[in-house]
Fold each of these.
Amino acid sequence: MLPPLKPIAMKERISLIFIEYGEIDVLDGAFVVIDKNGVRTHIPIGSIACIMLEPGTRVSHRAAALAARVGTLLVWVGEAGVRLYASGQPGGARSDRLLYQAKLALDDQARLKVVRKMYELRFGEKPPERRSVEQLRGIEGARVKKTYDNLAKQYGVSWKGRRYDPTDWDTSDVPNTCLSAATACLYGITEAAILAAGYAPAVGFIHTGKPLSFVYDIADIVKFETVAPVAFKIAAKAPQQPERVVRLACRDVFRESKLLGKIIPLIEEVLTAGGLEPPYPPKESVPPAIKETEGLGNVGHRH
Amino acid sequence: MLVIVTENVPPRLRGRLAVWLLEIRAGVYIGTPSKRLREFIWNQVLEGVEDGNAVIAWNTNTESGYDFATVGKNRRVPVDFDGLRLVSFLPPDEQSKGP
């Protein structure tokens, strides 16, 4: 008998794959895409952080179960990576991590420290002292606008601001389409990393009130050094299929920046800045009767 | 690291490959040549493959950490997934349509 399947660590994975057409199923225990001609293509699902399923795919129950077992996030996307649903390794595998994250988010002082750390990492310098989260958000907005303007100028793209309508994709201009496609890629792997590290995507510090608030918080830290320049560079060339070219370039930049290896330590670094101790289990709590086995995956993975 | 797998190739090619590489199973060769030597060896395969088929895989600086090339007809054909190379397995009657 083969030993049971287990997830592997995020840093050992390929960032993401888009699947466009076909029936996704399990054959002989492998994750396969079968097209209408019967051609089957194996997807090394356990070695990928995140699978983006585009319109035109059908996923079987067993395929979704296999993805969950190896800790790979499935994201159902619309045109150019507009997210619809996600599944795979649902968050909440580690209550100690979730409570730690919630403790930081609920303590005003700790939250401000985390937010300040996020801005520091993002802009490479400490934000001005004695500012509230709201004030920092205002400063950030202005800086982001300027960064977009600078990138547009640098790559010779005509830029009229970050404008997009998620419900009507085709109304965006090329730079905005490229940027949306690029950020969709980044959000996919960021969510996979947050779940793998055992945290909740919805509990954000700068962003709030959305299912992926924490994903946006973490992705924003690396957005302008990874996917934003890529999007502008491609927008300047105005290719036939900008979204496809953007994805390819995003994968390259994820590899070159070794993002999958860095992103979980980055999450830990940001949260540690809050200066709170992770919560200890209360005295009256009962530890698991059957001890969890050690796996090759990250702490958020269910082994 | 380099791996070459050959199927249905003439014995003289198999003997030739064994000059530089180690044949660990029938038609399966491994070695750690330089890029130049790898291309030289693969050229020998391209010249001598005749009706058989062969595949070469080596480690490189791609996201998957390796790349591969094929020669000759096989039911498994390389496909491009946004720059990531995977393999499609053709159904039996599709074989003649393969590249």
Amino acid sequence: MKRFWVLFFMFWPLLALYVCWVAPAYDWWFPGAAASPLGQRIDDLFYLILIITTVVFIGTQAALGYVLWTGAQRSDEGSEERAWFSHGSHNLEVIWTIVPAGVLLFIALYQMDVWAEYRIKTSFPEEVRNDPIAEVTARQFEWRIRYPGVDAEGNPLPLMPDPQPTDLYTVNDLHVPSGRPVMINLRTDDVQHSFFLPELRVKQDAVPGLVIPVWFEATKSGEYALLCAELCGWGHYKMKARLVAESETSWQTWLQELKAEQEFDGVVETSEEE
Amino acid sequence: MRVLYVTSVILGASAILQGCGRMQPEFSHRDEFHELIPAAQVVVEDTLREHYGSPTDMVAWEKLPLKFSAASGRVTAVEEGTATPSSLQVSLNTGADDIQPGQNVDWLTGTLLPASGEEYTATREVVSWDPETSTLTLDAPLPEAPAPGDRFVVDLGGVLEHGRTLYAEHCQHCHGVSGDGAGPTAPYLNPPPRDYRLGKFKFTSTQTSNRATREDLSRVIENGIAGTYMPSFKLLEPDEMQAIVEYVLWLSMRGETELNLVTYFGELEDDEEVQEYVEEDFKEEFEDDISFLARRWEVSQEPAALVIPKEGRVEVTPESLRRGRALYVSDKAKCASCHGTEGLGNGPQTLAVQKDPDGNEYEHPGLYDDWGNPLEPRNLRTGIYRGGRRPIDLYRRIYAGIKGTPMPAFGTALSDQEIWDIVNYVMSMPFEEREPGDGTKPYTPPEQLATASPE
């Protein structure tokens, strides 16, 4: 029975190794492969940390197994070896302080450029840094989106801080061009929300009173989930919207259609019915 | 110690079981219902239960102009040479596109409809539906051939049941089980959630005398109502949207029916009068009112009910804005009397004492809606338009008013061009320069103002 517990505790590092090994293949951690280049780098960081923690876990479990095994041997019948008391080892203390600190320092430095690109505005891709594509305002419980609209020639206008007569509005439906970085200005009308694009690995809190720039790039055209990751109230689960990434031309066509819909004066309806 | 242990186990178990118990949803009644004499309450309750059922056991009352089921229709011919056919030629009243394999087919008339108390043996599943030949193929032969003209229904009550489930998930916690706008979240909301039981919905595309269209309701569900707690449910599938709309209409019709019933019985004072009324006039009056209610909703769904401008939107020019402004403050359109000369929603009517539908004065000055809620005229400078921000939405608000509120209809008083001028002006208001002294910029002395060029 003594050795059963040794085996019991040795089972978990093996399971951890297996889980760590197969998790990426089965998407246990993420909803599919990252749909953005920065998301891919975030995944790489995640898996690096997963490998480090798995190795550490296996190492500590192996040490635990060794201690249990030798303890079991000592208590076997006929064994003359006795347990011995150790007050502590200065060298060991130094080692297991410095090694984890070194690992943490490595992770902190290694991820710094990803973090900067993700969060620090001066590190954003230059083409989007001062050119938000839309303003996304979170509200209990929906996402209201303001686009700057298009001029008479059909060219997208710049987004102004305050609403303009040319602005276009949608709700729960964020359309962006795919294959290039885009930036949105994130706000909230009421409580703290969190702008979450799980497939693109984007998560950013929306804080009352702040306008927070968030950039992302959808690699492929398609429809992605836009959720609120903050428990922002009773109807939090209702804040499900969509991000539609599409080619530059179809995005511009969509803007034109949105403009036409928003300027609809009911007259086309008459001719359709006739 | 042992007693303490046993007691705590019993208490814990009961707390868990209590928590796990499912609350049975129930329709609540209008306040007026509770003022009726008990005998009248029984009749009203029974009548409602007979025709609408309960939240968990609904009745698909055919008199109501609703899409209860996927499809309904009549048999036109049966497969030749067989006494127990599994293939029928039919003509459909509704739902030609909604028939799916696996749905049940039930009979409403003919020999296949069992007499009361008998077991239903003629329910079959759809195997295929061919719209070109109007042929419905069933999974097994029927016990006997239906006669031409026999009526059937596909997926009996399915749409409404689907709607009920979705309503409970998304809408009920604000709008309440009965659609009375008194769900558990409602006390925390301003404006309060809509009480459907008057059959009135504010933001419609229809004429003043008409009800909302199904599209009006689905538009509100899809886009939410900006500036209120009603969020957008854009990602609902079309069949989910349809089911919710039908269920909301069903609740609305149930509420209207209850209102009619409590009105009939509200005047009766003793059991004898109730009995006399039930035996003599009640049935006929009730039938008439339901037919009227159904027709009113039906008519509202027809294209003729829509508000459609004869002329397109007037171009937004300084002249149009000037005309719009002049109308806005004029006695003809009277916009400023509620919305204020600056559009801030603070016109003189907001300080006047108004009368309720019974002719009594409200306790506090200001405007009220038909549900008795105090109402603030919209601040037009916020750029938030609850009924939609398209020009046609604003046109319709001015042309047909906002139902259930003091916002009147100007369709007959103003020409299309005048309405469009007001629409243009109202849409420009959030971007309009404010007057000096309103707190948004430094005060300009009058003499400087006079010398400034009035472009």
